[in-house]
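User: What would this chain look like folded?
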Amino acid sequence: MATTSQDDMAKKPLSAPSADRRRRGFEPAFGLMKDPVRLAGETRGFAMARLLTQWAEVAGEDMARKTRPVKIGYGKGGLGATLTLLVRGADAPMVQMALPVLQERVNAVYGYAAVHHIHLTQTAATGFAEGQAEFAPAPRKDTPADPALVAKAHAVAEAVTDPGLRSALELLAQNILTRRA
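Assistant: Here's the prediction, encoded as structure tokens.
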């Protein structure tokens, strides 16, 4: 039995990809993650991963900031599921009032009246100790630009005659000048 050295392996050319593979090009990232996301969702009762992955579209932006789907539990007969949502205590009364609309939107995803009840929980999905979970990132605080840097950026792009290009160059110059080292 002959052994191959690293040099022999490095000299061997790679085989060309098949014509079918070349036609496909890059595969979408979700195509690679579809099965692991589906399996993770099924462990919590979510037969359709769309409810988890597109919660902002299903519930609406305002409701998605206040809630997060945790699990779906099915009754013994298999009819009438209960959707459990994680919600902050301060938002719970407002979410409670919007539950009929939210239930209709969730059932629209399933295509039939799959969810008969929505249960709100104020406990974090990971446990009691991590109950201070943030649902949405804090809004960014925009600081006003330094007038001296704005003037310097304007001077850099002053010779450009096209207004769109000039404003883009000014913005680029401002970003470069205000970049943190």
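Strands lie at 67-74, 81-87, 115-121. If you want, I can go into more detail on any region.
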